[in-house]
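Subject: Sanity check before I submit

Could someone independently write out the structure tokens for this chain? I want to compare against mine line by line before I put it in a report. The sequence has 150 residues.
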Amino acid sequence: MRELSIFVLNGPNLNLLGQREAQWYGTTDLATIVRDLDALAKPLGATLTHAQHNGEGAMVEAIQQTTADGAVINAAAYTHTSIALRDALAGTQLPFVEVHLSNVYRRESFRHVSRLADLAVGVVTGFGPDSYRLGLEGLVRHLRLADESG
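---
Independent answer below. Compare away.
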């Protein structure tokens, strides 16, 4: 079984996790999410690289430059607005899972629209930090099945 390379990309304001709007995002900070994902990746046969950017352009560049097999992406607010991120993901054909800490469908109506979801392998929303775990597990399974079939 080959080791998979997974890129975990976090968008704007996720560097403030644990400090902001706990009713939506909980109290777990991004460093803890990163640590927990890294611990999970090893038994799954994956290595992770992580990035967090507040700027849309930096996120586009990160997507274009990655050589990973797939990605777990929490584009945060850019999920709902960014055609540029959508175009980068479509152009690179990077398999990815879209994740969200909060259940976006229980929030403001503008959050009900994702510019990325129809390109994604899957979408995980509303499970707090476990959204990342579920997204990573699902992506690894998807990539392993793709390896087996072809």
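---
OP: Matches mine. For the report I'm noting this point. Strands lie at 4-10, 46-52, 70-74, 96-100, 122-125.
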